[in-house]
Design a protein that fits this description.
The chain is α/β, with parallel strands linked by helices and 380 residues long. The protein contains 13 helices and 14 strands. The strands form two sheets. Strands 4, 5, 6, 7, 8, 9, 10, 11, 12 and 13 form a ten-stranded mixed sheet that branches. Strands 3-2-1-14 form a four-stranded antiparallel sheet, sandwiched between helices.
């Protein structure tokens, strides 16, 4: 394969003010941010990626500039046809910079977005969807579930998600002592073919999490996600896995191939949830997905952001060949809804046949929300 150099990089940051803030157990989102990244090679082929930007509150603009001003000079001239090599190279070259400023997360997130854009570029060059570049036998339809539903407003949230075609719902918990009772009420209202999941967003100590699990034991709960801190240690996670029949889920706040390998080998999680925009991009997350499936566990990509990252997550799940489902946030978000995200029908999403992620350009409707735009090229 002939060497084709990366010749141009753009980053775009956006913010959408929220009328109704999105609450989690650890904080409140008062706007919806997103950072989209476009990479072009010397032949004019391009690809899009997304960089995690939900936290901290000022993170979007920081990551957009980090990718453009600190990492792009290391990327320009790299072989656009070798995304795995570029991913490893950028991780190596930025290690000391990240160590110097104590910001490994932002560097990893920016590199994840770059990796996704390079895979999109390569799928576009081949004229096929990303999932088929990764796996020629990839599925065209994937299961999905509605996410981002506050358990304190669950009746309205689930009703709206049902109307949008969902048959599985994830409730946010970790707010107060009434969480368990509200979960029990919602579980009683589930339809025959519906499923209920829970996400505590690392809210509790091991003891608090065990108490919560004991109070909902017997409820038809598909999983409890991040009941304790992601870095609490294998012993605490194993203790929780052993005190309840409700499976545990996590992985969005895990980074690094070796850490995922250890997590998978420990088998403390039944559902493993790497985030394509937080670490690994397509290169890292697809490798994790295959390891998860080979271990007999379930790969369920985590995602809560804009439309490009959601499309990439959908393509990854379809390519994985596993039985997992895709997280689809049901809170209003123009930075997601302006993109060609397929509709949900009876709990599933049928993916399109366009090249790459099927994104040609950023929709004009996003222009009022733009807070930053920058670009660099080999000639600049």
């Amino acid at each position: 394969m002939r060497y084709v150099a990366v010749s141009r990089i753009e980053t775009h940051a956006f913010r959408v003010p929220l009328t109704v803030p999105v609450e989690t157990s650890f904080g409140i989102m008062r706007d919806r941010p997103a950072v989209f990244l476009r990479i072009e090679d010397e032949q004019g082929v391009f690809g899009w990626g997304e960089i995690f930007a939900n936290w901290p509150s000022a993170g979007a603009e920081h990551r957009a500039r980090l990718a453009l001003e600190d990492i792009a000079p290391l990327l320009l001239g790299s072989d656009a046809r070798q995304p795995r090599h570029v991913f490893r190279d950028l991780m190596r070259k930025t290690r000391i910079r990240a160590l110097q400023c104590g910001e490994f997360g932002p560097f990893w997130q920016a590199i994840a977005g770059i990796d996704t854009a390079l895979w999109d570029l390569n799928a576009r060059a081949e004229g096929q969807p990303l999932r088929r570049l990764l796996n020629p036998g990839a599925a065209d339809s994937i299961p999905v579930y509605a996410s981002g539903i506050d358990n304190r407003k669950a009746h309205a949230g689930i009703a709206g998600a049902r109307q949008a075609g969902h048959e599985a719902f994830k409730l946010k918990v970790g707010f107060d002592e009434c969480d368990a009772g509200r979960v029990q009420d919602q579980a009683k209202d589930l339809g025959t073919h519906e499923a209920l999941y829970l996400d505590a967003n690392q809210a509790w100590s091991r003891e608090q999490a065990a108490d919560f699990l004991s109070r909902i034991e017997g409820c038809p709960i598909g999983w409890l996600e991040e009941p304790i801190a992601a870095d609490a240690g294998e012993a605490q996670w194993r203790d929780l896995a052993e005190v309840s029949t409700i499976p545990l889920a996590g992985g969005e706040n895990v980074a690094g191939a070796s850490n995922f390998q250890s997590l998978i080998e420990s088998r403390v999680l039944s559902f493993v949830q790497p985030d394509v925009a937080k670490w690994g991009g397509v290169s890292g997350c697809f490798d994790v997905a295959r390891q998860v499936i080979d271990a007999g566990l379930t790969y369920c990509p985590h995602f809560l952001g804009g439309g490009i990252g959601l499309l990439a997550s959908a393509e990854l799940l379809a390519a994985s060949g596993g039985p997992g489902s895709l997280e689809v946030d049901v809170n209003p978000n123009p930075l997601r809804d302006a993109f060609p995200v397929p509709a949900v029908v009876q709990g599933s999403m049928r993916l399109g046949d366009g090249p790459g992620l099927s994104v040609e350009r950023l929709p004009d409707s996003l222009d009022p929300y733009r807070t930053f735009r920058g670009e660099v090229s080999q000639s600049s």
